[in-house]
Each structure stands twice: as C-alpha cells, then as structure tokens.
Amino acid sequence: MRIFTLLSWLLAMGLPFTSKATHQVGGQLEMRAVGDVPGHYRIIVAQYLESGASADRQAGGTLGIFRKSDNVLMMRFTTRETGQRQPVIYANEFCAEQRNLKFIVATFEADIQLTPADYDDVQGYYISYQTRNRNGGINNIVNPIQTGYTFYLEFPALLQNSQLFPNSSPHFGSINGEYVCIGDPFTFPFGGTDPDGDELRYSMVTPLNQKGATGQNGGQNAVSPAPYPDVSWASGFGADNAIPGSPTLSIDAQTGQLSVTATQLGLFVFAVKVEEYRNGVKIGEVRRDFQFLVVDCPPQTTPDPAVQIKNRPKNPTTTICQGDSAILTAAANANWNYQWRRNDINISGATSSSLAVRESGQYTVIVSQKTTCSKAGNSEVLSINVIGSSASVSATGHLCATTGSIKITATGDPDVTYQWYQDNRVLTGQTTDSLRATQAGHYWAILTYTTLGCKVRTDTAILDRSPTVVATIKSSSGFNRICPQDSLPLLGSGGLSYRWQKDGTNVGNSGSKFVVKTAGIYSVTATDIYGCEGTSDPVAITQLAPISVSLDSIPGVCGIDGLAHILTGSPLGGQFAGTGVVGNIFSPRLAGVGDYAVTYTVKASPECAGVVATRLAVVAPIPTIKLVDSLTTYKGNTFSLNPVYTGNPTQFQWVSSRYLDNANVANPLITAIADDITYTLDVKNSTGCEVNDTIHIKVYARVWVPDAFSPNGDGLNDVWELPGIEAFPDAIVTVFNRWGEVIYSSGKGYTNPFDGTLNGTSLPSGVYAYSLDTIPKKPPIRGQLVLIR
Asked: Which CATH topology does 307-387 take?
C-alpha cells in the first residue's frame, strides 16, 4: 500500500518516472595542470544526466575563458567526451529503479595551452560553460524546464611577480546516488580535495542559470561573459533553504559534507561554492550544481549487517602490504541488497556480502531489503591500512639545458629504509628519503617497511632538461645605430625576464625593452619561467654624428607668372617640400599668390628623423590703383582723392607734389588748390611689385550763369547749362515762378539741368527767378532767367 502511494505521489508531482526523462541533474568544472609545460591544462566538464536517449546525444560543448577585471574573452575552446560513461551507483538499486533514479556521469575534456605571460592580471580569470535544461518536476525554482545551467570556475593569474604560479582547481571524485527519506537525518559527502594542498571552504549558494536561457538564444551552448543570472527561487526557498527541513539543507564549511532532515517531499536543486585559499588568500573558486529527491520511505525492520575482517573477527582495523588483500565480510542474507563503500563513496560492482580490498580506506556496507523500499542499515567502519599506499615521490627544482638540479623526495610511513634507482640502475649510497638529481632520467625508490617487511616501489619521477634559452636582440628600427639627438630601443626575446649588459657591465633589469642612448657593445641575458638563463650574441651599437642643414633664401616674385626658382640646400641628398615645389623647383604658378613655407629635410640615416631647414617663398600680388582719370573742382578747395588699392602696397610716390600735404602717403590731402594740375601716383609692395596711375584736376574760379535759354527742341540751348558747376559737387540750383513757387530744384549737384518743364509739362516763356548755392555756408547767388520759346 505504501509503494502504491509513493508511486502515485511521484506521478502527481510530475517527477521522472519513465525512461523519457532526459534532463541535466548537475555538474561542475575542473582545471587540472598537466605538469609538463607551464600553461598546459586539462579542462574537465563533469555532467550528471538522466539516462536516456537525450543523454546519449549529449556531446561536448564550447567554453570561454574571461578576464575578471573587464570580462574580456581570452580564449574559446571545445571539449570532447573521454572515457566510458559511468552510472551513478545507488545503495538500493531496487528503490532507485522504482523511482526512476537512473543517472550517469559523462565527462568531457579539452587540453589547452595558455601563455602564462598573457594571464598575469591580479584579479584573475574565470571559465564558464552554459547548457540546458533542468527537470520539469523541480519544486524549489520557478519555470524549471526553461531554466539552464552555468558551470563556473575561477583561477588565479598564471604569472605573479614575474614568477609562475602553479595551481589546479579542487578535484571531485565519484558521487553517490542517493534519495532523501523525509524525516530521517541525511548526510552526503560533497567535498573535494585540492591537488596543491590549498584550503577549501564550502558554502551554499544560489545555482546559476544559463545566460539568456528563456530568450532568443535559449538552449544554445553560448559563450558569453559574466554576470550570469541566478535561478529564480520559488516562494519560501533560497540558497540556505533549498530543501526545507529541521535542520534545512546545509554544508560543513570545512569538510563539504551536506546534511538535512527534510520536512517536505519533492525534487530540489542546490549549489555549493567551493573557495580555494592559499596562505589565507582566496585564489579561486568552483561551483557544483546538483539535486536531491525527498521521498517517503516506508517503515520496515532495518537490516543490521554484522561486518568483520576475515580471520580478525574482533579487530575492525588491519594492516596489509601493498599488493596483498584483505577480505571484508557481512552477515549473509539472501533477501538483502549489499552496497560496499570506501570513504563514504559507493564502490561499483561491490554488491555481495563480502569484498576483497587492496586499498587503504574506511569501509562500510549499506544493506537493504531486495524487494522493498525500506530504510537501509549501515554497518560499522572497517579500517584497512595498506603499507606503502602513500609511497610517492615529489620533485622541486628544474633541469635547465646545461645547469640546474632537482630535489626528489620520497614519502612513506615511519620506520622505512630507502634505495634510489635511476633508469633501472641502483644509485649506490642513495639511501635517504631524498636525493639531488643533476641529470635527466627516470627516478624512483624502493621502500622497505619494518612493519611486516613490506617492500614498495614509489611512482616514477621523469626528469627532463628544458630547451636552451635562446636570447636575441633586435633594434626597434632594424638598424644598429643611434640617430643624432635620439635614442634606440633594443628589444630582447627568448625569456620571461631580462638583464642587460653594456661593454660587459650590467646596466640594469628593464624587461624586454632597453633604451640605448650611447654607443657600445650590448647583450641581454634572458631568464625563462623555470629560472634558466641564456645570453644573446653581443650587438655593436654605433652613434651617428649630428648634421647641419641649410636652405638658400628664395626671392619673392610678382604674380603667378614670375620666374620659377631653383632651390638649393646643403648638404646634398635632402628632400624639398612645400606648396608649389616639384623636385628642386619652386613654381609660382603651381603655388598661387601667397606666402609659403618651403622645407629642406636631410636624414643622417634612412630610419632617423630628418633635420629640417625652412625658408619663406612669397608669390606677391601685383598692386592695382582705383583712381578716376580726371576731376573738376573749384579754386581754393581742399579735399582728398581717396584712391582704392589692392596688392598690399607699402610705398607711395605722388608727382607733382604741389598742393599735397605729404607726397609719400596713400591718400594725401590737397590743400587750397589754385590751378589745373596732373598728378602721377607710383606704388610698390614689400616684394617690389610696382604700378602707377595718373589723374588730371581742372580748377574753376567760379560758375558762369547764363541769363536766358530756349528749350524749343532745336538742339541749341535746350537746357540751362551752367559752365563750371561741376567744380561744386554740393551745389543746389532752385528756380521759382513769379509767384515765388519752386518749379525746379536740383538737389546736390547739378546733374540734371533745368529743361523748362514742370512734371513733364512745358513752362510758358517768361522771366523766372533762381537761387544757386555753391558751397555750404557761402551766400547763394540770386538772379533772373528768361525762358524763350
């Protein structure tokens, strides 16, 4: 009845029950240093999948490496599946099958080569892998079927303070298949180990969603930078309450062991952040994503397995030599399932009542009913210590191409003697726990333990010499000479750090670039990431003598039709440049009117900056004078001619100079003119371009006013002409009829003489009065005019 109730509940919850369930369960990333070449890493993506057709189609994906400080993409690479897919082992396979808890572990890997010098940012870097989808029956997040995964790993700079910083991320071993019984205390080993011995700290966090999982690119294995979105928790859930319970799901910060006493049925996802610390400083982190199913376990009699070590019935601990085995036995019962564990991890295939073991560890067996989903029984712990299981070698140091040494140390239990070997040859006298190797080869040790007389061979340290450090020098210009008043950067290559020498004397450590300011013999010693050195061939750097450059003056020309000028510079071999310059010719026509800088550049050597001499080339405009040819005025007048100039004239000469206040200015004042006169004006600009013009001035003593005229159309005296009036440009002539009415007024100047009409109508013959104002403030001339028809 309880089984029927459980299965009905699973169906109602929408949890996986048939083989059609094909979604992700969890996973994590791992970054493992290969150890042969600096920067060589194996990236591992471990994915926990629901077994089925969809899981069978799961292939490797694309990952990205990003710089944390600015999220710049450093590298993109693709993983491929390696090895056989492994099932996740459950202690009670019958119950797991009843609940369709059939998971597999698929491992995808990529070997990548990073350049340490490119990964030196103090804030470090991160790797991300994004994929989909989660189970639709998950109870603690919103819209789970449209929610994806982001697997995330941070790692430190590979190069710190010019030194290689070796590091691998935490390693996580096999995982047990487990379900949680509601109301029962539950623990689960979820911790890892660190290959470098760094401290690991664990904490519960919110799982990461795939970036854009529900958007246009949802479901794609996108490579995109942080930040990555969190999953959306359902109401009442969170990172510290992923599985409700008393207590809720939590993790031991030091060991990584999960624990919960669940109070709610369902399928729950969670994530754990594993932070990596070295000397108290965080250097990296990785996130692990997983899920647990909480079910109602029917109350049954719990099996009580009695375990012992064969032939040691009362001792739960024993020691054996490496290569030997110990037999562990449990009470035999044909109705029981058995699942042996080593260090809390289920052992594949260990499902009988006895087990032969050859490895050190803490062994237990989980026993449950074969045909009933009931609570399982846990045995006591049997401890097996294998002498020599910890026997290994470690190496520190490096063998350069011709120098260097490596200290090899063997680790083992106390009370042990050592004998070292190199390439199958006994190393006489090398009987301590370490040796100093100065030659390449295969090294190992035979350890003889006093306890039981066990003999164990360690693993092998394979020592190789690194390639010769080839240091080279190249000048930034491509020439081994220093230009006048300049310096020459030298560029070193072949190493990670550099030490420069001049004439055999150290001149400092300045990285791969050294700026040379004086002649000499230079070399550089390059040091690679192992500390190996190589010195370059010496390079002789010479100093070029300074040069003095001159350019002859360029005479100015008048107008663009002036003669072209042959340019002359010293020393020979330079280059002329400027507007209007072709080769060594300056052409006024090509340049046009204006002032132009013409340069002459000479280089001490082709790679050097040129020394420049400059001259001014002037194509001057030809001046012009705008001045009337003749002018009429009256005797005694004082006035100016106001000529208009172009071409920037600077010299003026008036001939004759009579009546002028200054004959050498642009606009002299003519004072109290008395007689007719002709002036000639000659002007020049600064370039010497010259032009002249002439004006004739006629001087009238007075205006002659005729006393009659006959506007009868015969062509004679048809208008009232006033000879000499042109000398008075401000003159005003007014004519009146006999009643004193104005019938004509000229305005200023008598430009339209009186023709005997008024508004186009001929006036009658008769006598008319007139008034003539010649000069302001001078009394007008008055008289009578006879109009004859």
From this structure: Immunoglobulin-like (2.60.40)
